[in-house]
Write the structure tokens for this entry.
Amino acid sequence: MTYSLPTLSTVHAIQSHPISQKQLTPAKRPQEAPSIIFDDSNLVGVTIPHIDPPVIELRINRFTVERVLIDQGSTLEVMYYMTFVKLGFNESALSLAPYPLFSFNANPEYPLGKISLPVRAGTRTVDVEFLVIKLPSPYNLIMGRTWLHAMRAVPSTYHQLLRFSTEQGIEQIHGSQQSA
């Protein structure tokens, strides 16, 4: 089955008045990053049609963690208790997380606590604050928008890819439809 995207026949531009433009000093200018694009060549190995979420692997401390759900709708990063234990931690490693989580079920869910850990994707590592919760899940971690923004990552559910800019160029992590 072949899918094609509609082509744009018109390009719109918004231009501000030169007097209203703020002058950016070199320190305040956003860092230029190469463009991140997806096209049909990225669909090799992807079963189409699908509605699978991106599920990837990441490195946490010295461990490879499988079944990591990329959830663009989540504003938090979540670690499930079984993963927390398998990574060799106990509850004394947790800091207080005094607020409940919603959207897991109809009731508020109080985390056991929070923990900050280095998370490596490709050649890039960022420190992530996880809320640890004691609920059953087919996933080990949920990585939300906070991590995606810190990584400057762009996920494509359709292509089952996560791409992000590094000093060496664009890196990518393939999702696992089998794990999804």
